[in-house]
Amino acid sequence: MNIILDTNMLVSAIKFGVDIFGQIEKFGKPVLLDVCVDEIKKLAKEGNRNANLALQLIEKKHINIIDSNKKIGANNSVDKIILNVAHRNRWAVATNDKELIKKLRGVGIKVIRLRQKKYLIEAV
User: Fold this and answer.
1) What is the topology classification, in CATH, of domain 2-122?
2) CB-CB contact of 10 with 30 (8 Å)
3) CB-CB contact of 99 with 118 (8 Å)
4) Among the residues of the chain, which ranges form H helices?
5) In the chain, where are the structural domains located?
6) C-alpha dihedral over 19, 43, 9, 67, to 10 degrees?
């Protein structure tokens, strides 16, 4: 099963020094949506050091970037696009965003989150 990494998860893992790629394999294969990569690039341009490191890590780990065929706009937020792609493909999502977790669980999507700034767990 593919697991969509959201921006929050990737940047938080770097911030706290957690090797999520060493842990996520037990849940499935990590992937990123193009809109999340765009969001990380925007943060990096704004000077976010963790976002810069995230971009390097994406390249180093050869993370598959999925074309969501969506554009962010008035009716499409990154979270909404993640929710739609995960629901359509029955993929899990790795995030620490509480609002997104609530929405994902509301439609039965498996959620992986960072616990105690150390390890990944399935949110229940």
Assistant:
1) Rossmann fold (3.40.50)
2) no
3) no
4) 7-16, 20-24, 34-45, 49-60, 78-89, 98-106
5) 2-122
6) -100
Distance CA 122, CA 47 (A): 32
Instruction: Give the pair of three-digit tokens for residue 30.
Output: 């990590």
Spell out the per-residue pLDDT of the chain, length 124, in tens. 999 999 999 999 999 999 998 899 899 999 999 999 999 999 999 999 999 999 999 999 999 999 987 766 556 789 999 999 999 999 999 999 999 999 999 999 999 998 888 879 887 6
Is residue 91 a contact partner of residue 44, using CB atoms and an 8 Å limit? Answer: no
Planar angle of CA 22, 23, 25, nearest 5 degrees = 85
